[in-house]
Amino acid sequence: MPVNDELARKFLAVDTTALCDVDKTTRVLHSAIRARSARSRIFGPAFTVRCRDDFLGVLQAIESAAPGDVIVVDGGAREIALGGELFARGALARSLGGIVVDAGYRDMAYVGGCELPLYSRFVTPLSGTSSKLGELQVPVTCGGVTVNPGDLVLADGEGLVVVAPDRIGELLDGALAIKEAESAVIGRLDAGATLSETFALADHVAALRRGEPSALRPRRS
């Protein structure tokens, strides 16, 4: 399913935790890759780059990607900066959706207040070289998971996840249902109910002790 405004609006109504609750096999990037910018929310297709200690491929990707694309950099988890203020400004000028670097980033005095969502594993002042051709639009490993060109990258304050584009519709619908159920639970808790009452905990535990299949779900009423 192609990226469109409707899908983006649905993601604004949910979060990455709900997506992971829908599908426990969701690809989640390592938590060491953290937001460095003022904004953390990302929703867009991956434009992938593989490079090692050299940022030329990242520059090429920024200049080649389409508006809304998210630059995903397999930098080998090395503590070398593969971008900084100028790359962030360049990505903003091209209306990109974000930059995710499994390596270092620098120039935090600017990046910390930048409106472009920007993630990296390290912050370091030492930059890479600019003399090696990187690989663009190939399957890469970022944050310990495989990211293919065109995979959807979604991020918020909880972290980064990657979803195959043909699954995003069903996952977002499932996440919306989960958020609605959570809202109902919050209403019951605010009204004085306990977690045990809200989730029928005793029944769930009893079923498991009997060896029966059971799922911990909120009561419907």
**CATH structural class:** Alpha Beta
Number of domains: 1
N-to-C CA distance:
35 Å
CATH architecture: 3-Layer(bba) Sandwich
Catalytic activity: oxaloacetate + H(+) = pyruvate + CO2; 4-hydroxy-4-methyl-2-oxoglutarate = 2 pyruvate
Protein name: Putative 4-hydroxy-4-methyl-2-oxoglutarate aldolase
InterPro entries: RraA/RraA-like, RraA/RraA-like_sf
Pfam families: RraA-like
Summary keywords:
8 helices, nine-stranded mixed beta sheet, Glucose Oxidase, domain 1, 33% helix, two-stranded antiparallel ribbon, alpha/beta, 221 residues
List strands and helices in order, with pairings.
Blueprint: H1 5-12, H2 16-22, E1 27-28, E2 34-35, E3 42-50, H3 56-64, E4 70-74, H4 85-93, E5 98-105, H5 108-111, E6 118-123, E7 135-136, E8 140-142, E9 145-147, E10 152-156, E11 159-163, H6 168-190, H7 195-199, H8 201-209
Parallel strand pairs: 3-4, 4-5, 5-6
Antiparallel strand pairs: 1-11, 2-6, 3-7, 3-10, 8-9, 10-11
Helix pairs in contact: 2-6
Family: Belongs to the class II aldolase/RraA-like family.
Organism: Amycolatopsis mongoliensis
Cofactor: Mg(2+); a divalent metal cation
Description of the molecule:
InterPro entries: RraA/RraA-like, RraA/RraA-like_sf. Pfam families: RraA-like. This protein has 221 residues and is of the alpha/beta class. It has a single domain, classed as Glucose Oxidase, domain 1. Helices cover 33% and strands 23% of the residues. The strands form two sheets. Strands 1, 2, 3, 4, 5, 6, 7, 10 and 11 form a nine-stranded mixed sheet that branches. The radius of gyration is 20 Å and the shape is elongated. The protein starts with a helix and ends in a 12-residue tail after the last helix. 37% of the residues are buried. The mean pLDDT is 94.
